[in-house]
Amino acid sequence: MKLIAVGDNVVDCYLDKKVYFPGGNCVNVAVNAKRAGAEVIEYIGVFGNDDKALHIQDVLSKEEIEFKDARYAIGKTGQPQVAISEDGDRVFVGGPKDTVQHRFKINLLPTELEKMKEYDVCHISVYSSMESELKKVAAVTSVSYDFSNRVDLEYIRSIAGSLRFAFFSASDLSSLEIKELVQELKPFDIEVVGITRGDQPAMFVHKGQFYYQVLRPIKVVDTMGAGDSLIAGFLVSYLNGNSIEQAIQDGTISAEKTCQIEGGFGYPKELS
C-alpha cells in the first residue's frame, strides 16, 4: 500500500509542559500510516525556515517518510497552542496566524500529478488549502479527505464529488445531526465515510451500511492525533484488501497506540 499526503504540517505546543511535538493532520496520517505497515509514504507540504520546521523534517526522515517535493518558504511553522481544560482535556487555545501555512498554498505540478498515479491514495485535510487541486488529484488517484469539524454543507458539496474517503470529527453534533450529515452525503457516492464522535465509538458508512468501532479499555495518556491515527490505520488496512470490519479494527489499534503516548506520534522538543 502506498500513500501520499499533501498539506499541513505544524508543531503542537503544550503550554503546560513547555514542549512541542511535530504534527498536523497530513503529517500525522503519513507517519502513522508508515507505522501501520504502508510500504511507501510521501509527504508534500510547505516548510518554514525556523527550528520547528527542521525538527519536523528530521522526524520525517527518521520515520522514513519521503518529502523531496516539499516547498520551502521564509516564515514561521504553524504552531497551535494547547492547554489543559478544567476537565483535563487538551484544547487548542490559539497560535500565530502569519505562518507559511497561511501565506502559501500548494499548486501541484504535472510531474507530481503523474507520480501520484503510482499511489493508492492521496490524503488531504481541510487545513491544507487544496480545494482548487482536488479534481486534478482525483483524476489520477483516490482521494481521502479529513474535514475535521467543518460540516457546513455548502463547503462539503463543493468538493465531495472528488472524494473516495471522507472523515469528520463530529463530537459537537447530536445523533440526529450526524444522521442528517450522512443523508446529505448520499448523492456523492463516497465509498467510505468515517465519523468520530468524541468518547463514543466512531461510525463508518460503507455502501449504505453502518459499522461501529469497538472500543477497548486502555490507559489514555494523550488523545492528540488519535483521529488521524484512526484514519491512517484504516486506510492502510482497507487498501491492502481487508474487510471494512477489519480495517476499522486496525484503525482502532493504531489510534490506541497514539492515545498511549504524548503528542501525535512522539518526538517532544523543548519550547523556548
Automatic annotation (TrEMBL):
Cross-referenced Pfam families: PfkB (PF00294)
Taxonomic superkingdom: Bacteria
Matching InterPro entries: Carboh/pur_kinase_PfkB_CS, PfkB_dom, Ribokinase-like
Record flagged with keyword Kinase: yes
Keyword terms of this UniProt record: Kinase, Transferase
Domain Carbohydrate kinase PfkB: 17-263
GO molecular function: kinase activity
Protein's name in the database: PfkB family carbohydrate kinase
Organism of origin: Psychrobacillus psychrodurans
Classification of source organism: Bacteria, Bacillati, Bacillota, Bacilli, Bacillales
